[in-house]
Give the backbone structure.
Amino acid sequence: MTGLFITFEGGEGVGKTTQTKIIAEKLRQKGYTVITTREPGGTPLGEKIREILLKGDIDKMSPMTEALLFTAVRRDHFEHVIKPNVDAGNIVLCDRYMDTTNAYQGFAHGLSIEKMESLYNLAIGDFKPNLTIIFDIDPSKSHGNLTEINRFEKMGNDWLTASLNGFREVAKQNPDRCILMPSEGSIEEVSERILKILNEKLGL
Ligand code: TYD
């Protein structure tokens, strides 16, 4: 049996990481084997490139260099973690994936979503998430829950707002794969919302 690849996407500080852990636990209680992972990262090489991408000055590299590095991390992650686990029948929950590249590098940095999709096709091919849940938030209410400021969070509120609009555009362009989910509410309310979507869309 093949497994499932589910991605959680959205702006900064919307609670994706917390929800990834909670949902993994809930699915394990139902008897599934669940792997949680993240991008950039997920492998020893990916975690090293993560440091390079997230630390330092905003303009230490161009948007296209960023996109290529995120894509390199993705390929390594795909080869070593995502594909083998999906092939083994497991559920892989990933905190950020291709749609952050689409929203941040493609839309907010202006490289174009189409170009980012081409890069993805070159690096990974046809393999896409079975389901992507995009944590949607009103841009005026976001940017308030940041603990550690990374290079992208330093880019300012206008840029972060553009990235949130980028996710809405991605959802519009991929209605079969992506669900735009309101991220307001308590941790429990949001978990319930996600579990309902997983049940309705994937029968989990
Ligand atoms: P992280 O701390 O994991 O963000 P969060 O906790 O908000 O999920 O940092 C990852 C950062 O990298 C985040 O600011 C978004 C950025 N990023 C991109 O710009 N493009 C990408 O393709 C990915 C995967 C992440």
Remarks:
- The chain has a mean pLDDT of 95.
- Strands lie at 4-10, 34-38, 91-95, 131-136, 178-182.
- The pocket of thymidine-5'-diphosphate is lined by residues 12-13, 16-17, 39-40, 54, 70, 95-96, 100-101, 104-105, 150, 152-153 (CB under 6 Å).
